[in-house]
Every structure is written in structure tokens, then in C-alpha cells.
């Protein structure tokens, strides 16, 4: 029975989910955080606190509203239906907003005086300054998407679209006491997380050293 289990498919699905969700998650969080940190407009603080308040809601509370929205958009049982809710995160917006707000205002004002438009300031000033934070968000986002279980279980019916965490549970249901298959699947699913952390830890440590110096 073990040979009939499409574990490589689950692995590929998780790579697709991570490869699409994490970059979009970082970009959307940064684009939302920039105006909240550096622009002045009416209701800015109200919007920020409204976003912040969603962090106190248990993720389970949002399952039904998310599923209803995804179903209305016709994205139930699709890759897009799994990816879409993970693109927007209050935690990512909050973390980057605090990082952007910590960049000296003189640097931003000098860039504006030199004629830089907001997109250029965002790309060439703010993102390089926030590199350690972006690395942290990348690691957290990767682990969250790679280990996602509840949301794919709710939104997906086709087992061929399962991510690796859900695939291993499905594998356990099929193989029963086939401990070797379960152990092999679990070890293989952990390896990418370790590799990503090893690649990104330099940026995280740089950020921690910078925070200590500051």
C-alpha cells in the first residue's frame, strides 16, 4: 500500500503553497505597513488598531468566515483557496510597521527632498533597512504554511491537493501501522524547514545584533 501513496505529490503541493504564499505574504504586509508607518492620513491609527485587534482572535474563529468567502469566490477545493487567506496577516503588518517606524525620519525626509517618490523610498530605503525583519517573516511564514493542516483540511476535498502535513495524516489513515512509511514521510517533511532556517539564520542574527547595539 505504501507505494500507492502519492507522497511526492504532497511534497510538491507544499512547495507550491509556500512558494506562492510566503512572497505574497511578505509583499502585502510590507505594502500595508509602509503607509501606516510613514504617511499621514485621517483614520490611520484607527485602521492600525483595527488590524492589531484581529491578532487577539483565535484562528479557529476565522475558519467559517474564511470558508464562506472562499466558497463565494468559487475557490473551494483549489490551490488559490488554500493560498489566499495566508497572504494577509496582522502579525506581518504589525512587525513591519514597527520596523519601518524605527527608521530615522531624517533619512526618509532626505530621500523625499532629493525627489524620490514613495515607491522608490519603499524599495531602496525601507526594505533594505527591514531585511532582518523580512527574514524573520519569511521563516515564520514558511513554517506556518509548510505545517498548515486545519485550513487545507477544511477547504480541500481532493486529496491530490493536500499539503505535506495533511498528506502525512492521510498516509497514517491509509497505512495504519506502517511505521516506516510514517517515519520516512515525517523526516522528509522536516528537512526543508531545517534547510530554510539554516539559510535565513544569518539575517536573523544580524537583526538581533543590530537590536542589541541600538
Protein topology:
Layout: H1 7-38, H2 44-53, H3 63-72, H4 79-83, H5 90-101, H6 105-113, H7 118-129, H8 131-146, H9 150-155, H10 164-175, H11 179-213
Please, could you describe this protein's structure?
InterPro entries: MetI-like, MetI-like_sf. It is a single chain. The protein is mostly helical and 214 residues long. The protein has a single domain (2-213), classed as MetI-like (MetI-like fold, Orthogonal Bundle). It contains eleven helices and no strands. It has helices spanning 7-38, 44-53, 63-72, 79-83, 90-101, 105-113, 118-129, 131-146, 150-155, 164-175, 179-213. The longest helix is centred in the C-terminal third of the chain and has 35 residues, at 179-213. It is globular and about 65 Å long. The mean pLDDT is 87.
Summarize the structure.
The chain is built from eleven helices and no strands. The chain has 214 residues and is mostly helical. The protein has a single domain, classed as MetI-like fold (Orthogonal Bundle), CATH 1.10.3720.
Name the CATH homologous superfamily: MetI-like
Per CATH, the architecture is Orthogonal Bundle
Q: What is the third-level CATH name, the topology?
A: MetI-like fold
CA radius of gyration:
20 Å
Distance between the termini: 57 Å
Provide the structure class: mainly alpha
Average residue pLDDT: 87
Low-confidence stretches: none
Major sheet: none
Mind telling me the CATH class?
A: Mainly Alpha
Query: With helices defined by DSSP (H or I, 4 residues minimum), what is the helix count?
Result: 11
Amino acid at each position: 500500500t505504501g507505494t500507492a501513496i502519492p507522497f511526492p505529490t504532497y511534497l510538491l503541493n507544499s512547495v507550491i503553497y509556500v512558494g506562492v504564499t510566503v512572497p505574497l505574504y511578505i509583499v502585502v504586509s510590507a505594502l500595508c505597513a509602509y503607509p501606516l508607518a510613514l504617511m499621514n492620513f485621517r483614520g490611520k491609527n484607527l485602521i492600525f488598531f483595527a488590524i492589531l485587534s484581529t491578532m487577539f482572535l483565535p484562528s479557529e474563529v476565522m475558519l467559517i468566515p474564511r470558508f464562506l468567502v472562499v466558497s463565494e469566490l468559487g475557490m473551494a477545493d483549489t490551490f488559490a483557496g488554500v493560498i489566499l487567506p495566508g497572504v494577509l496577516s496582522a502579525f506581518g503588518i504589525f512587525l513591519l510597521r514597527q520596523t519601518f517606524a524605527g527608521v530615522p525620519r531624517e533619512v526618509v525626509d532626505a530621500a523625499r527632498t532629493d525627489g524620490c517618490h514613495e515607491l522608490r523610498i519603499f524599495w531602496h530605503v525601507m526594505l533594505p533597512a527591514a531585511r532582518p525583519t523580512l527574514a524573520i517573516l519569511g521563516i515564520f511564514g514558511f513554517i506556518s504554511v509548510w505545517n498548515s493542516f486545519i485550513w487545507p483540511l477544511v477547504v480541500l476535498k481532493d486529496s491530490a491537493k493536500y499539503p505535506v502535513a495533511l498528506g502525512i495524516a492521510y498516509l497514517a489513515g491509509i497505512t495504519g501501522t506502517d511505521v516506516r512509511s510514517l517515519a520516512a514521510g515525517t523526516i522528509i517533511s522536516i528537512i526543508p524547514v531545517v534547510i530554510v532556517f539554516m539559510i535565513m539564520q544569518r539575517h536573523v542574527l544580524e537583526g538581533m545584533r543590530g537590536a542589541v547595539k541600538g
